[in-house]
Amino acid sequence: MKLKLWHKIFVYSFVTVFLTQVLTLGWYLYIYDLNLRVKNVVRYLKGLSQNLQALNDADLQKYLETSQVLNQRVWLEDEAGRVVMGQPWPGMTRGERENAVSKRYDLDGTLALILKVPEPSLVVRVPIVRAGRLEYICYNWQRSPLVQYWGVFVQGILGLVGLSLILSLWTAKRVSRPLARLRQDVMKIAAGDLGLRLPEAGEDEVADVSAAVNHLTENLSQHVIGMRRLMANMSHEMRSSVASLSMSLEIIAEALDPSLSALAGQEAQTVAKSLSLARLEIDLLENMMASGLLGGKLDLKHEGLEAAPLDFSSLCRQAASRHALRASLKEIELESHVQNGLWLYGDEILLDRLLANVLDNALKYTEPGGKVAFKLKEDDGQLVVVCHNPHPPLSEEQLSNLCLPYYRAEEGRVYGSGLGLYLVKKIVLLHQGQIEIENRDQGVAFSIRLPLPREVDRPA
Predict the structure, then answer these.
(1) 274 and 368 together in one domain
(2) How confident is the model over 151-171, as pLDDT tens digits?
(3) How far apart are the C-alpha atoms of 347 and 308, rounded to whole Å?
(4) Is residue 423 a contact partner of residue 356, using CB atoms and an 8 Å limit?
(5) Closest to 435 measured CA to CA, from 355, 366, 364, 363
(6) Cα–Cα separations (whole angstroms), residue 77 to 94, 122, 143, 212
(7) Pick from 294, 323, 354: which residue ends a domain?
């Protein structure tokens, strides 16, 4: 079990207080003077006995009975030790108590015995003279004054320990609470919320750390904004170059078209396939530029969500149809199953980019001869898009990092900007949806869930 900071603070605080109590107890035992305490008890009981010897038998009997009700025992003995009046505790009569004596005091004719039956107990035998007879008043508490004082002290120690537990827990929680909030805010910053700033109230270490994190976040935010602005600008400029290449390719294709009929069948097929591959590569470049430009706009908050009624089934079929050519050129089977009539409120441009990026990623990581399955269905009030490709299973670390910007699970294997799945997750979250990536059926499956409204105002 990994101990949290408040656990450690609690343990340290409690151990400190507990050791303090133990040392206090040890010091009390060291200075505890049993002889002095017995003398004080005997002095008190001798004074009490002087008042009792003037009572007649009836009044003395009432006193003895009252003492018994108060969980004390006081009784009267003769010189031989026989009980004359009252009722002692079992084992407290003269013959029995002599066998349990631990320590004996004889203080000016008054006998004080410390017994162990089974816990320390004090019996004090005070001589009195009543009606010309020498008798002895015997006092015994079930827990003697010695044990009572000791018990009060132990109870105080236990009470302080219990109070220490509560105060230590409260202190640990109070001290660690700012750190827990600090951790939550730092995790939000790590997740991409670079606009968040931590409170810097106070002059303690937590405020210093908050100020340092804010300074770091500010610098990091400026660098990230600059990088994303550069990425967006580069994507915009490169799109013009790619558009020129596309136009030039179409001009070349039109110029070659009359000549293809004069070529042999195999040669014409080779030229046609080369032109198709060139168009495909230009399309991929356009997709990369579009992803870079859209990513910069979303991160810089230049692109918002323009939700409108949208035939999502039709959008999915169009996306699958556009990628069918690329799949056939790579000798990949693209299997598409789209449920009809599924509408939602969403941004058509963003959702089209979402579908394009998911299919691009699936085809990119599928070897020739493989099969990619693309499905759209309704499940439990949600639209579910599932795209499955036969990629070898990914590690847990790779699965958790796939949607991070510029992350590549397999560096150098395929080209791309590293923003495709990052944009997918961002667009899904903008539409209040969820994305899940998992190893499934000897491949990797992307599952996207979007809320399905009960009613959509479909255009006429």
Answers:
(1) no
(2) 656 666 777 777 777 777 777
(3) 6
(4) no
(5) 355
(6) 9, 17, 21, 83
(7) 294
* Domains identified in the chain, total number: 3
**Backbone φ, ψ for residue 109 (5° rounding):** 85, -10
pLDDT of residue 300: 47
* E-assigned strand segments in 21-168: 72-77, 83-85, 101-107, 110-116, 120-130, 133-141
Q: Are strands 382-389 and 371-379 parallel, antiparallel or unpaired?
A: antiparallel
pTM for the complete prediction?
0.47
Residues 360, 286 share a domain = no
SS3 373: strand
Residue 38: domain span: 33-143
Of 280, 304, 305, 285, nearest to 234 by C-alpha is 285
CA separation, residue 258 to residues 13, 255, 276, 448 (Å): 90, 7, 17, 47
Tell me, yes or no, whether 415 lies in a domain.
yes
Residues in the chain: 460
- C-alpha 320/C-alpha 327 separation (Å) is 10
Q: Which regions of the chain are under pLDDT 50?
A: 300, 302
Q: How far apart are CA 14 and CA 17, in angstroms?
A: 5
Domain of residue 111, CATH code: 3.30.450
Q: What share of the chain is helix, strand, coil (3-state, %, to 5)?
A: 55, 20, 25
Decide if 242 contacts 231 (C-beta within 8 A).
no
**Could you tell me if 363 and 285 lie in one domain?**
no
Q: Is 96 in the same domain as 77? A: yes
Under DSSP, is residue 136 helix (H, G, I), strand (E, B) or coil?
strand
CB-neighbour burial class of residue 59 (10 A; exposed 0-12, middle 13-18, buried 19+):
exposed
